[in-house]
Amino acid sequence: MELQDKVAVITGGNSGIGFGIAKAFKNEGALGAIVGRNSETMKEALDTLGSVFTGITGDVTEADDLEMIFQKAFERFGKIDVLVVNAGGMAQGAKMGPVTSTSEDSYDKFMDLNLKSVYFTVQKALPFLKDGASVILIGSVAAHQASSDMSLYAAAKSGVISFARGFSLDLLERKIRVNVISPGIIDTPVINKMVPAEHISSVKELWSSNIPMGRIGQTEDIGNVAVFLASVKSAYMLGTEIIVDGGISSISK
Ligand code: NDP
What is the rounded CA–CA span in Å between residue 246 and residue 93? Predict the structure, then answer.
């Protein structure tokens, strides 16, 4: 048990990668809170996680909600040892596109969710985080390679990777370690939000054929690495990034 009695708060813990991290943490003895907005997926996630995890409904792009989230988690558990800043991806009402046509409104919505919310999630958590806590940010391999219509997302995730270094420096005195996991293509509900239902299986096949390991990543692949970063086994890691992508960003097939 790598995380026995550790208290974790995981934003976006009701779906995909965040839920995979919550399950991996629970298997290692952790307890804590998952944060999201969708009550249906929240209920489903909590049914699987059981009573060691609680759900907190909130919007990570709203400062008041962030304050409420950490206040509630602290009141319930009395401490926070691990923070996973995972909520992100598709921003409601924003359309990803090339620089030639993306609107200012889409820019703001996209950056609010994928960059600004990361900054303020960490800031609002700080009064409640234990000294020596582990903060895990979720980046993306998109930060390292341009793809069509993804420049905003890539820039936001590059910023997240940079935050890990800056925050680690800002928080040295409190011995809070901030590191990033950058996933490659992971099988989560985000795929259903991006690809029409009738094309999902062919798109997944195409993606798999381009990944050196020959498969799309599973949420467990990220959960296992998050356990490592949350645990004392990564005690000497500070402000760094772990890429978990089946080789796609570094090996061409
Ligand atoms: P999902 O769509 O499955 O999950 C996104 C999660 O974020 C949901 O739990 C959602 O909760 C939460 N969320 C989104 N907006 C808000 C908000 N405003 N307030 C609170 N919660 C919010 O996607 P993934 O699991 O795939 O993505 C998780 C993270 O991993 C993201 O940061 C994404 O950029 C990153 N990532 C994903 C990759 C992939 O291939 N899947 C690759 C690289 C990085 P709710 O629905 O309740 O709002």
Answer: 31
**Cβ of 223 below 6 Å from ligand 1:** no
Tell me the pLDDT band of 194, cut-offs 50, 70 and 90: confident
How many Å apart are CA 93 and CA 79, to the nearest integer?
A: 36
pLDDT in tens, 158-178: 999 999 999 999 999 999 999
CATH number listed for the domain at residues 7-189+218-242: 3.40.50.720
* All structural domains of the chain with their residue ranges: 7-189+218-242
Rounded Cα distance between 88 and 114, Å, is 5
Q: Residue 173 C-alpha to ligand 1 middle, in angstroms? A: 31
Comparing CA positions, the residue from 193, 196, 136 lying closest to residue 163 is: 136
Can 236 be counted among the known catalytic residues? no
Which residue type does 96 have?
A: M
Q: Which of 147, 70, 159 is nearest to 110 (CA)?
A: 159
Report DSSP state, residue 211.
Answer: S
State which of 86, 112, 150 you would mutate to test the pocket of ligand 1, scoring each by most atoms of that ligand within 8 A of its C-beta: 86
Tell me if 87 CB under 6 Å of ligand 1. Answer: yes
Return mean pLDDT, the chain: 97
> Does the CB atom of residue 188 touch ligand 1 within 6 A?
yes
Q: Of all protein residues, whose CA lies closest to atom 6 belonging to ligand 1?
A: 12
Of 107, 119, 153, 236, the active-site residue reads: 153
